[in-house]
C-alpha cells in the first residue's frame, strides 16, 4: 500500500475512533500533500510524501523550541503530539554511526578535500539520505568530516 493511501486509511480510522488530535494532524498532512500536488500538477510518490512529512516535523521542532522559550508548555505538548503522529509515517532513521559512515563514503566519492566542498557533499548527501536521516545531523557530520 502506498504511503498516501495508508495516511488516508489512518484518517478514516481516526474519524471512526473520534481521535480529534490525530485526525487534525492527519488532515493537515493530507492538505500539505494535496497542496503540493496541485501546485506542481503532479502525483507524489512515497519519497516526496516522506519529504513533506520530514518538513512538517522540522517545523514542529522549531515551534517547540520557540514555545519552550516562551514557557508555553500547553503548546509544546500539542506540537509534540503532532510530531508523534507524523513520525509514524517516516521510515526508520539511520543511527549516528550509520550517518557518519555514509558521509565518509560520500566525501570519498565526491573527492571533497575541505570546507569549500561542503555544498557538493551536502548535495549528494541530500540525494542519498533525505528521509532516512535527520539532515541537521548529516550537516554536522559533513562539517566534522571536512574540517578534519
Automatic annotation (TrEMBL):
Keywords: Transferase
Keyword Transferase in record: yes
Organism lineage: Bacteria, Pseudomonadati, Pseudomonadota, Betaproteobacteria, Burkholderiales
Gene3D superfamilies: 1.10.10.410, Uncharacterised protein YqeY/AIM41 PF09424, N-terminal domain
Protein name per Swiss-Prot or TrEMBL: Glutamyl-tRNA amidotransferase
GO MF annotation terms: carbon-nitrogen ligase activity, with glutamine as amido-N-donor; transferase activity
InterPro entries referenced in this protein's UniProt entry, alphabetically: Asn/Gln_tRNA_amidoTrase-B-like, GatB_Yqey_C_2, YqeY/Aim41, YqeY/Aim41_N
Keyword Calcium: no
Organism: Lampropedia cohaerens
Amino acid at each position: 500500500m502506498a504511503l498516501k493511501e495508508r495516511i488516508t486509511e489512518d484518517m478514516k480510522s481516526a474519524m471512526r475512533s473520534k481521535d480529534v488530535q490525530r485526525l487534525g494532524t492527519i488532515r493537515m498532512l493530507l492538505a500539505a500533500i494535496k497542496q503540493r500536488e496541485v501546485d506542481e500538477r503532479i502525483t507524489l510518490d512515497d519519497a516526496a510524501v516522506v519529504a513533506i512529512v520530514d518538513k512538517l516535523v522540522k517545523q514542529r521542532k522549531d515551534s517547540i523550541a520557540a514555545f519552550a522559550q516562551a514557557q508555553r508548555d500547553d503548546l509544546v505538548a500539542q506540537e509534540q503530539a503532532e510530531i508523534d503522529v507524523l513520525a509514524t509515517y517516516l521510515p526508520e532513521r539511520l543511527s549516528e554511526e550509520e550517518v557518519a559512515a555514509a558521509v565518509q563514503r560520500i566525501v570519498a566519492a565526491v573527492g571533497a578535500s575541505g570546507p569549500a566542498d561542503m555544498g557538493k557533499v551536502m548535495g549528494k548527501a541530500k540525494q542519498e539520505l533525505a528521509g532516512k536521516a535527520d539532515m541537521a545531523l548529516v550537516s554536522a557530520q559533513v562539517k566534522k568530516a571536512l574540517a578534519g
